[in-house]
């Protein structure tokens, strides 16, 4: 059952740390395109400070898990990113879907560096 408040997609990807710069360069166009989708309400990329080469992408969507799988993840702008980065992966890609809870359980306070 999908949440009436949207879906949060968490993607974990682990690459050879020597490829980090090339990975981030390949990611940027797909990140920008996905972030610009009208259903996307939040996107952020994180680097695991305890495991070099591991990244987590968190995206919140006003959409169901099914829509994300059947529509969003099929968009053409992901292909150049996947083709460029798949050879860098040292662990399988991990996708997790979470139902968002009501807005009383949501808070975003941007403080500090935003560049």
TrEMBL record:
Ranges for domain ABM: 9-62
Classification via SUPFAM superfamilies: Dimeric alpha+beta barrel
Taxonomic superkingdom: Eukaryota
Gene3D superfamilies named in the record: 3.30.70.100
Stated name of the protein: ABM domain-containing protein
Native source species: Viridothelium virens
